[in-house]
């Protein structure tokens, strides 16, 4: 371990590991068009991301004329089908991420993904970007069953167990990440460049970084 104080570093996916806003917005606007609604721009979509696909769709419908309850399941299916078919058109790692992963790999730190995205979608996206094989485990919002997605600590605990135990950190961009890490006894690191719903400093994370260049030096000091 070369004296590095963490055995495991987990990452949220959307808005943390990857900038997925372009592909999520395209899928959302496809569903809105089917509902006869006007499209939303990226700035309007950004605050809707991160709390699950249903929240994303219902927030967009509310913003464009109201939520037609009877039509939500159909539109959700359409959104997910479009997204799965166009999952990595615009999505890319945030600057500095690959170098940070390389540095962690060089110290035999196990890396993982803990996301509320459906596991199948997460694996498909990470696979298309060549990142799936770099992760010791990938845990999605549906992996552990109903009620066990973040902010539950269950997926973070599962990450620690699957990675063989040891001191863990979770890097994320939402209060769900902070609460899940806290409940599992992991150190929480918030990225200020993610899909934040309010300023990073207000989420109560243990630490905040503004660029991935800061991650490994930060963890090394703890």
Unreliable segments (pLDDT under 50, ≥5 consecutive)? none
Percentage of residues in strands: 5-15%
Task: Please state the oligomeric state of the protein chains shown.
Answer: single chain
What's the story with the biggest beta sheet? 6 strands, parallel
Structural class: alpha/beta
Shape: elongated
The termini sit apart by 15 Å
Number of strands: 8
H-E order: EEHHHHEHEHEHEHEEH
Radius of gyration (CA) equals: 17 Å
**Spatial strand arrangement across the major sheet:** 5-4-1-6-7-8
Total helical elements: 9
The averaged pLDDT comes out at: 95
What share of the residues lie within helices? 25-40%
Q: Could you describe the 3D structure shown?
A:
With 222 residues, this protein is of the alpha/beta class. The protein has 9 helices and 8 strands. It has helices at 21-34, 42-45, 53-63, 72-85, 97-106, 119-128, 154-162, 175-183, 215-221, and strands at residues 8-11, 18-19, 92-93, 110-114, 137-139, 168-172, 187-191, 207-209. A 6-stranded parallel β-sheet has the order 5-4-1-6-7-8, with helices on both faces. A two-stranded antiparallel sheet has the order 2-3. Helix 6 links the parallel strand 4 and strand 5 (137-139). The chain starts with 7 loop residues before the first strand and ends with a helix.
What labels describe this entry?
6-stranded parallel β-sheet, 9 helices, 222 residues, alpha/beta, 8 strands, two-stranded antiparallel sheet
Q: Which SSEs are present, and which pair or pack?
A:
Layout: E1 8-11, E2 18-19, H1 21-34, H2 42-45, H3 53-63, H4 72-85, E3 92-93, H5 97-106, E4 110-114, H6 119-128, E5 137-139, H7 154-162, E6 168-172, H8 175-183, E7 187-191, E8 207-209, H9 215-221
Parallel strand pairs: 1-4, 1-6, 4-5, 6-7, 7-8
Antiparallel strand pairs: 2-3
Helix pairs in contact: 1-4, 3-4
């Amino acid at each position: 371990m070369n004296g590095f104080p963490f055995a495991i570093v987990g990452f949220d996916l959307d808005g943390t590991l990857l900038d997925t806003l372009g592909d999520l917005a395209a899928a959302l606007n496809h569903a809105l068009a089917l509902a006869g609604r006007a499209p939303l721009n990226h700035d309007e979509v950004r605050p809707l991301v991160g709390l699950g696909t249903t929240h994303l769709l219902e927030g967009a419908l509310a913003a464009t004329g109201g939520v037609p309850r009877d039509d939500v399941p159909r539109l959700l299916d359409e959104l997910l089908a479009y997204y799965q078919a166009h999952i990595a058109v615009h999505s890319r790692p945030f600057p500095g991420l690959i170098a940070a992963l390389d540095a962690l790999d060089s110290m035999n730190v196990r890396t993982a993904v803990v996301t509320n995205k459906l596991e199948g979608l997460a694996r498909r996206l990470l696979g298309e970007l060549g990142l799936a094989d770099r992760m010791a485990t990938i845990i999605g919002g549906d992996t552990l069953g109903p009620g066990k997605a973040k902010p539950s600590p269950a997926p973070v605990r599962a990450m620690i167990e699957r990675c063989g135990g040891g001191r863990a950190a979770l890097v994320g961009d939402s209060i769900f990440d902070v609460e899940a890490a806290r409940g599992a006894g992991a150190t929480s690191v918030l990225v200020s460049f993610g899909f934040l719903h309010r300023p990073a400093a207000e989420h109560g994370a243990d630490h905040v970084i503004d660029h991935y260049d800061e991650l490994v030096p930060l963890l090394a000091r703890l």
